[in-house]
Each structure stands twice: as C-alpha cells, then as structure tokens.
Specification:
- The chain is an alpha/beta fold.
- It has a single domain, classed as Rossmann fold (3-Layer(aba) Sandwich), CATH 3.40.50.
- The protein has 7 helices and 7 strands.
- The longest helix is centred in the first third of the chain and has 17 residues.
- The termini are far apart.
Length: 228
Amino acid sequence: MLNRASRFFPILRALRSVLATGGSLLEIGSGSLGLGEYWPGVFVGCDVAFAAHPVKNMRAVCCSGHRLPFQDRSFDAVVVSDVMEHVPPAQRTDVLAEAVRVARKLVIIGYPCGPAAFDLDQKLFREYQARDLVPPLWLEEHMLHPFPDENLLVKLPVGWKSDVIPNESLQFHYWMMKAEMSPLSNYSFRLALRTLPALVERLLQRADREPSYRKIFVLSRETEEQYA
C-alpha cells in the first residue's frame, strides 16, 4: 500500500547511496515482508514472530531487537523502520544500541516522532471507530505508548554521525491513511505503484516536509571507534 511505499522509499534511497544489492543487510522488526517488497537483494529479517511465510529474499531469524544473536559489525547496514514506537520506552535505547553494535557502515532508523504524530494517530484511531471499522493492529499498538522523539538519538555512539529526513507531512499522513480505509483507493494506489513507481516516488518525496509525521535518522560510521 501507499503508506509502506512512503516510508520505505527514503530508506531505499539512503541504502543505495552506500550499499550495493549484494551487501549484507539486516532489518530489525521486519515482519514477514519488510524491505523484501522493494529491496532486490537477499537480506536478513528478524522479529519476535512471523505471522506469515517470509518473502523469498528474506532470511528470517526469530529474536528480540534488544538482544540480537549476531556478532559485532555483522552487517554492512541495519534498518529499523516503524519499530521504535512499538517498543516499551525503557527498551528503546537497547534496540538502538544493538542496531549500532551489529552494523559496519550504516544504521537507518525511522519512526513516528513526537507528540504531534501521536495525537494524529489517536485522531485516526477515533476515525476508524466512528466508521465502525476495525483499526489495523499496528494502529492499536500505537495507542499503547507515547511515541519516541528526537531525543532518542540525541546522544550518538562515538564515531557516528546522523542525518535526519522528514517523512510524510502530518497533513499528508492523515489524508493518506484515511484514503486507505477505502478499498477503491487501495486498489488505485497499488495500480499506480505497479505501473508508475518512479512517478509515485517523486510525488511522495514532495510530501516529505515539516511538520512531519515520521523522521528517518540515517546514522553513518565516521571512524573505527567502538560503540560507547
């Protein structure tokens, strides 16, 4: 659906800038699909459970993001997309530390960011209820904890730098999620993504502005210092 493309397209652009499709890649909290819908290479996806059979190019590993069963610097790049808001606040820094620990070059972390994004999803949740629709599971889980904000990344590991990409303006996110309540809109979005993906990506990129619903933090290693 369009909301998946909207959050993954900026991540894919950041990945392609430093990683060939043959590079080693880990996605934390991938579920059964994750990056596999868009990334052509083989990658490792980890999650606490997989509700369906993972996509063909994913090597699935069952584990928790705050305790990964991988050695230090096992992967060229690590992606954590729309996971942090589902993690209890006390464990979020542990997930971040593990992502950095197992990465050699790049860590990309994206999540709905701050009180304004949380308020918007509460409004969206009420919209589902008003229409007598069952909210998606991810939205129900969004109601459990306040969203992390920029302070989650305020203290970077030694030897790493960060760039921040605003992703989905608040207004665009609310419009898109309301549109996806309609089967006809969903069909139209899927058709556009299948037939005109480059055009859709350019249009979505225009919606990546402040005030944003999500922020994507691109952490890149500057030195060979160990994580501290």
